[in-house]
Structures are given as structure tokens and as C-alpha cells.
Amino acid sequence: MTDRTTRIPRLPEAPADEAAGIRERDVTVAAYYFPNYHLDPRNEQWHGEGWTEWELLKQAGPRFEGHQQPRVPAHGYEDEADPAVMGEKMTLAATHGVDAFLFDWYWYSGRPYLERPLEEAFMPGALAHGMKFALMWANHDWTNIHPWKSATPATNLELGTVDAAQFEAATDYIIERYFSHPAYLRLGGRPYLSIYSVATLIDGLGGVDQTKAALDGLRVRAARAGHPDIHLNLVCREKTALPQDGIAMNEEALVDRLGFDSVTSYVWVHHYAMPNLQTPYREMLDQAEEGWDTLAGRYHVPFFPNVTVGWDPSPRTVQSDRYNPDLGYPHTNVISDATPEQFGRALEKVRSFVRKTEAPLITINAWNEWTEGSYLEPDTVHGTGHLEQIRRVFGLASSKARPNVHTMSAEVNP
Questions:
Q1: Angle of helix 198-205 relative to helix 164-174, nearest 10 degrees?
Q2: pLDDT at residue number 21
């Protein structure tokens, strides 16, 4: 929902010139996309007519000394389900070296949730903009933290668990609706599907063996639909999974047993400590750089490194409450000094990592996690600065050195 009364003129884009170069090797730069900035019937049922998560951002303010709030989008409070708006996002991404959006994808109560920006706005124009997409099935509970009131219990509005029938329904929808799209992201010719929480998956399906059977069944059904194999990715974190069958297993063992093909991360704070209310970005980067090697050595499948733009979920708290990190998410410590220059240093370090490991994919948190303070989209402070760092460090993929390309590489075509 574009707020035309407060819309800020667009910042001039840096030219997509030859100096940016072509990517030196075939690594896909993929940014997570959080689609909660459009009208959705369930959101309106919970929060009122016309609600989107922009409402939280508009009301956010500084909660402590030195706190960088509010965050204001340079392009205004846009409706991401508008194909014209999404087309501008795709152009911005493609001309700055972002190859793909990994859409946070939800399935609750037997149907998808927040799917309109992907299905109505992104998919029809993806080929024309040289963009790819894939799903990160965000199978976590949906909690009423928009915003969260201190000293009140968080309410689960929807549950992330699915039983065998719902797993089959959700994955049939994925196969039929997305996998055959010519812009769907493929690794090694296989459609890429990431799953957020292995513990939630196991909990809903009833155990490790049942989950293995469900994932094997997914592969069989995908093959019948014309996809001989799929690339299953797991989002890992520093937690132990405790399956219902009573066997204590860590994620490394579960990745092997369940047959995942790779692992990645969603955001740095799933792994690394923020010891201070304002923890400098460089301290998080130091931990992340060491963590990439640790995670790559921990798993027996490829690890795809993550670079995080920032972290500050304070807009998801009631602004009149006292900010108290002891309460836990969304009251947390934040990453400070998350400037384009610091982000550029992180990209340089992850480039060295992928050169060493030949990882084919880098994930970035995120394209638009505005209410968690982690976004590539331009704001009124840094403009396109973070995006320009991606192009500086990685250049442009050869398939989209110019916008509006109409052919895709063999990697994309089914």
C-alpha cells in the first residue's frame, strides 16, 4: 500500500556500467524476501482493514540513546503485490548483482499465506528482468508480535507444524505452482527448496522416520512431475533438535539421516552472540567469518554462507513500553554501525570463502526485513549503498548484465 502523501522521491540509481564487471565465477547471490508489505486477508482479520507491516515501521522510533530509528524506505511505503512496484524491485536487484529472491513461503491451515507478491507480481515479470526465485518454506509458528506487548504471552495465530496429509498438499502446491516456472532457481539442474525448521517438520510429521518418508515421497512426486531430482536445503542454527521418537539428535545427524543436499543460514543472530545492547557490525562479522569455516566443517553436505545486513527488531515491540532486551525477541540487542562499508567488508570476506569452498550460492538477509533492521532496499540514510557493495564485490552475473533480458541461462531452464 503506497502512502502517496509521504512518498519520498526515488534516489538516482548508479549506472549499470561495464566497470561493475561480470561475475568471475558462477555463484548465485540470493536475498531472502519477506512478503508482508501488502494486503492479506488474514492480516486484516488479525490487525484490521488495510493493515500491512509498514504500520509497524511508520510508528517505530529510537528506544535508547544512539538507536538508529526510524528506518524510512526511500521509495515510500509501497504495495509489493503491485506488478509495477515489484518490477522496479527486480530491476534494482538485477542491476546491482542480486540474482534471486528466496521468498519466505508459508503454509497455514491448508493454504498458502503471503503468497500474492510472488504469484501476482514477481513470477509474471521475472524472465523480463533476468531474475530467479526459490522458496524458503518458513515453517515456524506465526505469532502475534506485530507488535508484541511486554509482559503478555505471545499468541500463536497459526502453527507451523504439518501432518503427512498437509505436507503432501503443501509440497504438491510447490511442485505444481513453482518448480516448472522457467525462472525457478536450480542448482545442478535441480529446483532448490529450503526448509526453515527441521525440528518443526519432525514434530508435525511425528518423528524422524516419518519425516524421511515424507521427504522421499516429495522427491518421488517431483520426479513424476518432470523434475528427476530436487535440491533440498536446510536452514541451520545453533540448536539441538529433539525428535518425538525420543532420540536426541543434532542437526548434523538429521541432515544426513533425512537426506538434505545442503545447509545455509537465515541470519547471523541464529548463530552468534550480540553481547551488548548495540553490538558493532564488525564484531558480528568476525564471528561470522570464523563460523563459515566451522559450519562448513560440521556438515557432510555443502554449506552456503550467509551475509546479514543488520539486526534490529525493535519496530515489532510496543513503542510506548520500555525497551528491555532481557525479555527476548523482539526485545533484543541490536547490530550497530551496519553501514554499506561494513557490509562491503563482509561481502569481500564471503567472496574469499566461496572461492575456497566453491559454494554455488550465497544467501543474504535480507532484501526487505525492514522491521528486523536487515534490508538491501534503499532507505533515506544509505540510499542504494548496500546494493552498490554487492555489485562492487561480485559484479553482475552474465545472464543479466543488462536489465530486461529475455533469455535465461541453462541453470534456470527446466
A1: 130
A2: 66
Q: In the predicted model, is pLDDT for residue 1 greater than 50?
A: no
| % of the chain surpassing 70 pLDDT | 87
What confidence score (pLDDT) does residue 93 get? 98
Q: What is the pLDDT of residues 260-311, one digit of tens each?
A: 999 999 999 999 999 999 999 999 999 999 999 999 999 999 999 999 999 9
Per-residue pLDDT reduced to its tens digit, 211-251: 999 999 999 999 999 999 999 999 998 854 444 444 456 88
